[in-house]
Write a structure and sequence with these properties.
Blueprint lengths: L2 H12 L9 E9 L5 E8 L8 E11 L2 E6 L5 E5 L4 E3 L14 E7 L9 E2 L3 E9 L2 H5 L2 H8 L10 E7 L2 E6 L6 E3 L11 E3 L12 E4 L4 E7 L5 E8 L16 E3 L1 E3 L5 E6 L3 E9 L2 E11 L2
Helix pairs in contact: 1-3
Protein name: DUF4340 domain-containing protein
Keywords: Signal
């Protein structure tokens, strides 16, 4: 099973929470739909203040270059943060970040504002206190998430890709159908004969595309992939035309969709609407591949 599929399963298993910028989570529940979509529902409180220093009781999962991946021990929230200068043990004695290790229990203090991504990003941490040590079993349940954040991406084959978006159901991650048409050359140092080309059906002619349930109106979709693409282009068609016959000239009716980059370098499909088929073409230094999904309104 490819890594991104494992990531979506890890979201369900660990009840991971995606929190919108400037929002705080009070309660959460997790559910998985038949379409491989993991949905996390969050009840949002109205409290917000930069002066409030919230505390989270966390488990250190893995760290690299001063950035650590943590899990909230109470609700399973997974997020990354940099170690603050105010790092102490329980007695208040200042300690070095170099002694931190995976499995440590830490109390994390900050402004409570998570950036919207998966895992979440917590830039407002201002204090961290080491309070004890966890167990190997606690770490094992987060292994898929640890691999996603810190393991080297697999470049031997075309990656799977998904999207992350918000709706009235909560924050959602869903796998796109694909890769379909693609050209891929793994970095093996070989000749051009090592290049693999697959000519599948066009997105509009591919039956049973992954369905993404969205609210009425416009929603931004963030593209999620193990191997970060260099370029993303998106087209769409009215779902009334889907599926198209094999001899249909789908290019003549395609509508270009705006794609931007967010502050973390992820590609964002702008203004996704219900009732459309979307074709997403991702490009890497190793090749390119096409993915697709269809949108339907939440009932």
């Amino acid at each position: 099973m490819k890594k991104l599929t494992g990531i979506l399963l890890a979201v369900c298993m660990t009840a991971s929470l995606l929190i919108g910028c400037g929002q705080k989570a009070a309660n959460q529940s997790t559910q998985t739909t038949e379409s491989q979509t993991a949905t996390v529902q969050t009840e949002i409180s109205g409290e917000s203040s930069e002066e409030v220093s919230d505390v989270q009781h966390c488990l250190l999962l893995a760290g690299k270059n001063g950035t650590w991946l943590l899990a909230d021990r109470e609700n399973g929230t997974v997020f990354t943060t940099e170690v603050p200068s105010d790092l102490t043990d329980e007695s208040g004695k200042k300690i070095s970040a170099e002694i931190l290790k995976a499995g440590d229990y830490v109390d994390v203090y900050g402004d409570g504002i998570m950036l919207e991504s998966y895992p979440g990003q917590y830039p407002g941490v201002n204090k961290m206190v080491v309070t004890g040590e966890g167990t190997t079993d606690e770490l094992k349940q987060y292994q898929d998430v640890i691999d996603m954040v810190f393991a080297e991406p697999d470049t031997s084959e075309t990656p799977t890709a998904g999207v992350v978006y918000a709706s009235s159901l909560g924050q959602t991650m869903g796998l796109m159908t694909g890769p379909m048409n693609y050209t891929w050359k793994a970095p093996s140092g070989g000749s051009e004969d090592d290049t693999v080309t697959a000519c599948g059906a066009a997105v509009m002619q591919t039956e049973n595309l992954e369905k993404m349930a969205v609210d009425e109106g416009k929603t931004d979709f963030t593209i999620s992939c193990d191997l970060v693409p260099n370029k993303a282009t998106v087209r769409r068609w009215s779902a009334d035309q889907y599926p198209a016959a094999d001899d249909t000239d789908v290019d003549s009716t395609a509508e270009d969709v705006t794609v931007d980059k967010d502050d973390t370098g992820n590609f964002v499909i702008k203004d996704v609407e219900t009732g459309y088929v979307y074709e997403v073409t991702l490009t890497w230094e190793y090749g390119e591949a096409q993915y697709g999904f269809v949108t339907a309104e939440i009932k």
